[in-house]
Amino acid sequence: MSTEEIRAALAEIVNEVAGIPADSVQLDKSFSDDLDVDSLSMVEVVVEAEEKFGVTIPDDEVKNLKTVGDAVAYIERNRAA
Amino acid sequence: MSRTRVVVTGLGTTSPLGGDVASTWEGLLAGRSGVRPLGDMADGLPVTIGATAAVDPAEVLDRVVARRLDRSSQFALIAALEAWADSGLEAARESGALDGDRFGVAFASGIGGVHTLLSNHSVLLEKGPRRVSPIAVPMLMANAPAATISLKLGARGPVNTPVSACASGNEAVSLAADQIRLGRVDVAIAGGTEAAIHPLPIAAFANMMALSKNDGDPTKVSRPFDTGRDGFVLGEGAGALVLESLEHAQARGARIYAEVLGTGITADAHDIAQPDPAGRGGARAIRAAVKDADVSPGDIAHVNAHATSTPQGDVAESLMLHAVLGSAADDLVVSATKSMTGHLLGGAGALEAVATVLAIHHRTAPPTINLDEQDPRVELDVATKPRDLPLGDIAAINNSFGFGGANVAVVFGSPS
Q: In what residue span(s) does the Carrier domain sit (chain A) (predicted)?
């Protein structure tokens, strides 16, 4: 999957969970400050993303995923592994 | 100092008969049954019918709102928002004239978020703990419906969840009225909700022999007071009432449907599930409510009976009314609306409170359907068609009884 494909698939999850329009889920956007994704919704997004992308995102790692770009980069790094 | 009077200024419901008050009341007056086959969901179950909600709540609410709420909270929110809009208080809330600190909620559920609990249990077994929803707890907790309403409308006073099985909804009305009488709040949303039409509760209620096993025409199965009754039919939905101090309602020129005149709450201490066959606990609740209301038996024109269509309970309720009201019990008009709505458990007392208030407001008692041959032990004038209620000052009782021996009676009166 390309970076853009991961972003688009993640955007679909954010839309499903939090109702944020998928096209506003861009790499530079902060989940909490720009997209208004609260902490429990973020956990839902993470759990959905784990299944979708076949990765594991430990709870300790979630706090480092501040922006959509952080999450996409984490998924790219860990997908193949 | 005179007691604070409490009035009803808004009504809401989503029920097996309709998605709002108007359609539900129309269904009640028409004698329409909300009981239907459950389809695939009930495959292999001992009971395959239920009074499902006429309108799917997930189709009414915003998608993201709906996915964060158990079905029971979805019903509660829809009913509460209708009651709120009906009360005309939204303008006061928006302008800040309504103090959120003086605004409470008492909203009941008998069982809680059972769909959420069981669907997450299935996920746990099939996919493991990581896939259990992080919002499962706030979705399934017993006070989720009350908290959802508080959050939506900014109610920052007492936000309570009375739980007394099938008396819960009526107990919520009583509790909300108490909060206003005690001067803690000026406005409260009261109600009850239930969404327990799911294979596990159906199997459980059926195994305790509470549900009817009648496999004939579904619309004929719920038959309170009839000799052919053999158990209740599970229903789902919610009822909601906006209660307000009379002073607060009058100051804003609100339309007043009825007054909450008195309430009574007792317990049988007899059996965890069976009612006291003599109805003594229920009689004490009705007596307490009538005393609290300061009305005489002859003032009571109408009773919305608990009457679930079980063999013992319906007879006990007749005994209670006679024990408390004496010969006046012969003269009042009784309605058993569960004949049409099925039994909404924790929502029942609230939906029936809405029906009782509407009966006073419209001076019309709704019919009881399927009463082909009245049990001779039930010595009551049970309406089988819509019946006019007298003009002038009248009172009506809403009865609710629940597992655990819970008994709640609320006396409503015409506005004066």
A: 1-79
